[in-house]
Write a structure and sequence with these properties.
The protein has 230 residues and is of the alpha/beta class. It has one domain: Alpha/Beta hydrolase fold, catalytic domain (Rossmann fold). It is built from ten helices and six strands. It has a six-stranded parallel beta sheet with strand order 2-1-3-4-5-6. Helix 3 crosses helix 7. It starts with a strand and ends with a helix.
């Protein structure tokens, strides 16, 4: 059975097209990162990218009998597990989400307006503090199409669900990790400035089941999608 893929935030189902072809991304099932439902009765392989890892881990914790294994790529772990925010490009959004739900909605609406008229401007802004190797992805036309689609999915098509998901992520969900029993593979780039390597190490140490942590030299956040293997 094809894996169930959970995209990042901002992001969308098209994120899977950045995966290596060995994943057969066109055959992957799409999980709803913004409103995750329980998987079917047959145990599934869940793949979570970035904040999609939050959705995948939550599902594995709540429905352990329905999740056979997890692959987490550039995973966003609990913020409360360490002093990670100073190392994270998305820190301003997460700090705002902690302070003000209204502020987060206003920011998302503004980003939605920019996405409508100048999506590449917003992409450049989002990538401005990323590793130079990561920014090179913006030179790839196909990758830019994927990233634009992700902005539209979260900021234009489903802004309320996006805000709700960010608000849920910044709460303390460390207890969920103790309920995850299936095997977990974590792919993490050492040049990632969205979800830092220390966050992946902390996540690996907090999980109770078997964990295979793979730190990849020179890989960034989105770049790790292209280098992770099934």
């Amino acid at each position: 059975m094809a894996p169930l893929f959970f995209h990042g935030l901002p992001g969308g189902p098209e994120d899977r097209r950045l995966l290596d072809r060995k994943w057969r991304p066109d055959e992957m099932m799409i999980g709803d990162t913004l409103c995750p439902d329980a998987p079917g009765t047959t145990p599934r392989h869940l793949v979570g990218f970035s904040l999609g890892a939050f959705a995948a881990l939550g599902m594995a914790a709540r429905h352990p009998d329905r999740v056979a294994r997890l692959t987490l790529i550039s995973p966003a772990g609990p913020l409360q597990s360490g002093d990670f925010l100073p190392q994270m490009a998305g820190a301003p959004v997460f700090r705002l989400a902690r302070r003000s739900a209204t502020g987060l909605r206003v920011l998302t609406a503004l980003q939605g307006g920019i996405t409508r008229i100048a999506p590449d401007r917003l992409l450049r802004q989002l990538f401005s503090t990323s590793h130079p190797a990561e920014r090179a992805i913006l030179d790839d036309a196909a990758a830019r199409d994927v990233l634009r689609a992700g902005l539209r999915h979260c900021h234009i098509d489903r802004p309320r669900a996006y805000c709700d998901s960010i608000a849920a992520y910044v709460t303390d969900w460390r207890d969920d990790l103790g309920a995850v029993r299936c095997p977990v593979t974590i792919w993490q780039g050492d040049a990632d400035r969205w979800t830092p390597p220390d966050m992946a190490r902390s996540l690996a140490n907090a999980l109770c089941g078997p964990v295979d942590l793979r730190i990849v030299t020179g890989a960034g956040h989105y770049g790790m999608l292209r280098r992770a293997l099934p």
